[in-house]
Amino acid sequence: MVFDTHFTSVRQTDEFVDSTMEDILEGMIHDVGTKSFIEVVYENMSTDAETPLYPGPTNITRLSTMLS
User: Fold this and answer.
1) What is the pLDDT of residue 25?
2) DSSP state, 60?
3) 3-class SS at 61?
4) How far apart are the first and last CA of the chain?
5) Which of 2, 7, 9, 14 has a CA-to-CA distance to 44 between 20 and 30 Å?
6) Is pLDDT of 63 > 60?
7) Which residues make Cβ contacts (< 8 Å) with residue 65, sequence separation at least 6?
8) C-alpha span between 57 and 53 (Å, rounded)
9) Residues 61 and 50: beta-carbon distance below 8 Å
10) Short-list 46, 50, 47, CA closest to 59
11) Residue 45: exposed, middle, or buried by beta-carbon count in 10 A (0-12, 13-18, 19+)?
């Protein structure tokens, strides 16, 4: 019983976080406009694709880490 209650609580928390993140994202898109938002996301992803996660010679980038 305790596990079931905890699992339900976790599920409700996840749903709240997902809902909150969706609201934040929608607000950001509304504030800057769809085209500008897409440009910013593309710019950030391009930078993350070129930025190494660790110093030194490596092919592990910030973007590759986020996508794995």
Assistant:
1) 79
2) -
3) strand
4) 35
5) 14
6) yes
7) 53
8) 10
9) yes
10) 50
11) middle
18: which 2 tokens? 């997902």
Q: Could you tell me the pTM of the whole model?
A: 0.46
Q: Which residue has the higher pLDDT, 3 or 55?
A: 55
Q: Is 48 exposed, middle or buried (0-12, 13-18, 19+ CB in 10 A)?
A: middle
pLDDT digits (tens, 9 = 90+) for 6-60: 545 555 555 655 668 788 878 877 887 777 878 888 888 889 888 888 888 778 8
What's the pLDDT at 15? 60
Token digits of residue 40: 């910013």
